[in-house]
């Protein structure tokens, strides 16, 4: 779930840039409308992710991967000694 809210940030950057450059119909949008994707990304990271435990799942997965890499590294060390 780490990559999902990043789309909000990407969309926000593109819309803010197009608004700043006054391109097509983006010039008619208010800045509040342009900044909505940033608010959604913030809400996702600060409210929904902790509420549903996505941050803990990602942390547990990282710990698992770190332990896995350590076990692989240790197994190569013991094999090379023989």
From TrEMBL:
Matching InterPro entries? Small_Trp_rich
Give the region (Disordered) as residue ranges. 59-82
Q: What residue ranges are annotated as transmembrane?
A: 29-48
Keywords (A to Z) from UniProt = Membrane, Transmembrane, Transmembrane helix
Q: What is this protein called?
A: TIGR04438 family Trp-rich protein
Which organism's genome codes for this protein? Parvibium lacunae
